[in-house]
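User: Can you help me understand a structure? I only have the sequence.
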Amino acid sequence: MELSKRQKLLKSLAQEGGKIVYLVMDGLGDLATGKYSETPLEKAKTPNLDNLVAAGACGLCHPVDYGITPGSGPGHLGLFGFNPVDVVIGRGILEALGAGFLLKKGDIASRINFATINKDGVITDRRAGRISTEECIRLVEKLSSIKVEGVEILVKAVKEHRAMVVFRGEGLGGSIIDTDPQVTGKKPLPAVSTDETDKASIHTAGLVNKFIGKASEVLSDEPKANAILMRGFDAYHPLPTFMETYKMRSAAIAVYPMYRGLASLTGMELLEIAGETVSAEIDTLQKHYEDYDFFFIHIKKTDSYGEDGNFDAKVHVIEEVDTVIPRIAALKPAVILVTADHSTPCIMESHSFHPVPTLINGKLVRVDDQKVFTEKACEHGGMGQMPSEMLIGLAMAHAGRLLKFGA
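Assistant: Let's start by predicting it. Here is the structure, written out as tokens:
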């Protein structure tokens, strides 16, 4: 895949410089509306994030474009400097890479959600009650027994209700719609090619439907996870790496496999974390700080609790992140950038199109007048509003990692 015009410019200007810490609080943005008079970010006690803003600048970022609600994949690709409209990666590829799966050229991957359907085949829970990872592993053993003529099927547990599947064989195509309608109260959709002229994807969609049918049979005795929903079909193709594009040794600190997959796709080293807490992630940062130039730290629970509509829990996670900010600052990176891949308002219980609060802190930052890190403050911050794909260049510039352009 070729670099975008902007990435080619950054590549031509990239040089050695200071270290950058990207702290991505998934789904951070929220709304103060309806039953909520404040957003979780406004409600949370965040003295350390506020201090970063007071000594830096803030603004709002649009992950894809004005009014467009991003999935996690596009949201993160923008943060890594890719245009998420031009570079579309199926979620299945990301899940597979994040789970440590060694993909081959031509592999078709899809994410699986274990779900609950009623006697009429209608979805009553898209996540099967967020079953445990141990339960997921047991269910994947059932799915692994499924055989479909003409294709090799590889299934692997990911986390909680999530699994992934790879279809391997000749003549396969990944242009297939999701079978997950994204809402309850409806039946799962059949797998269908998005292109009526794409014989490879039409053929593959037929194989997928056979797999789904057999999955329903082997899961029929399960009280919760009695069905599967599939999404993010795609064929595997690698992206340009952080090192070749931005001249930065990069590392990812992320618990959830999908985000590890996103990082892996861009050539980041996947660091092992001793635990799943925010503190454990910062332990990993401290341990490997001298080894890399760029760190991507992913916080998942801000998004999970937003999707659950759990306002208080989202507040708690934000406050938990705030407590580790001094540990990051003590390492003295040239740039600390805090942002999100999208907003997940508790009132909506889903991703939304709203721009995400963002802050940048570093010695070269032109300090603005904002003193707190909230959506309202970011509306008036010195960073203004910008596409998320601009952030990587902004971070590199503030870290002294970009040469002058032109004579």
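Now, to help you interpret it: The mean pLDDT is 95. Residues 94-235 form one domain. Let me know which part you'd like to focus on.
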